[in-house]
Specification:
With 232 residues, the chain is an alpha+beta fold. The protein has one domain (11-220): Alpha-Beta Complex (Nucleoside Triphosphate Pyrophosphohydrolase), CATH 3.90.79. Helices cover 19% and strands 26% of the residues. It catalyses: ADP-D-ribose + H2O = D-ribose 5-phosphate + AMP + 2 H(+).
């Protein structure tokens, strides 16, 4: 309702990205309409922006290994077990992928790395020297080939009829485990707890995060479900 507020929807508005990853959305009476449907809530709600709110979710994975460094396979499926870095969110107490909002003008690749540092390695509380060392080690992981798990609208509890979450979830996989073994996980920023969690369908995660994790296990050929499913 501020007279000076006239956002440019469906385009890049200065440093703010108001384009949707899902294409054009309808703007009705100056308000963007949620492209997926009605939620029962009007207005901006708890989200920072009208229209799309862009986030980035780094899915950092490694193989589960025994004391001798050998990969551990699931006893039923025989597939190797994948682990990912999970945080317990302070706001709702649910386990989730560490992630957060893309800052104005920030590249997604930078958001992914920054959010992982802040939430899983507590970089905001580190000295400049410690931070530089973290950066050096993480650069190796985040500059290697990665897998874009998902880009688009997400079913988030904060979505309203006029504001919604969209994310880019990207998997960075530490095949040998050497990079992540040297990084001490430490909860920071919005995280209450951070730890490596074994991946399986039994996990109950925040918002659409279980779906993202499932896509990663399919890509890596890792264990997901004990149920063999229908024969092809």
């Amino acid at each position: 309702s501020d007279k000076g507020f006239s956002p440019k929807f469906n385009e890049r508005d200065g440093e703010v990205e108001r384009r949707s990853l899902n294409g054009l959305y309808v703007v009705e009476n100056g308000r963007p309409r949620n492209p997926v449907g009605r939620t029962g809530l009007t207005g901006r709600g708890l989200l920072g922006r009208w229209g799309p709110n862009h986030a980035a979710d780094p899915v950092v994975t490694r193989w589960k290994r025994d004391g001798s460094g050998n990969k551990i396979a699931h006893p039923v499926t025989g597939k190797n077990i994948l682990q990912f870095v999970a945080i317990k969110r302070r706001d709702c107490g649910e386990w989730a992928i560490p992630g957060g909002m893309v800052d104005p003008g920030e590249k997604i690749s930078a958001t992914l790395k920054r959010e992982f540092e802040e939430e899983a390695l507590n970089s905001l509380q580190k000295s400049p020297e410690e931070k530089a060392e973290l950066e050096k080690q993480l650069h190796k992981l985040f500059s290697q080939e990665h897998f874009v798990v998902y880009r688009g609208y997400v079913d988030d509890p904060r979505n309203t009829d006029n504001a919604w979450m969209e994310t880019e979830a990207v998997n960075y996989h530490d095949e040998t485990g050497e990079t992540m073994d040297n990084l001490p996980l430490e909860a920071g920023d919005d995280a209450g707890i951070v730890k490596w969690i074994d991946i399986s369908e039994k996990l109950k995660l925040y918002a659409s995060h279980s779906y993202f994790i499932k896509l990663v296990t399919e890509k890596r050929g890792a264990h997901w479900s004990e149920d063999p499913g229908p024969e092809c």
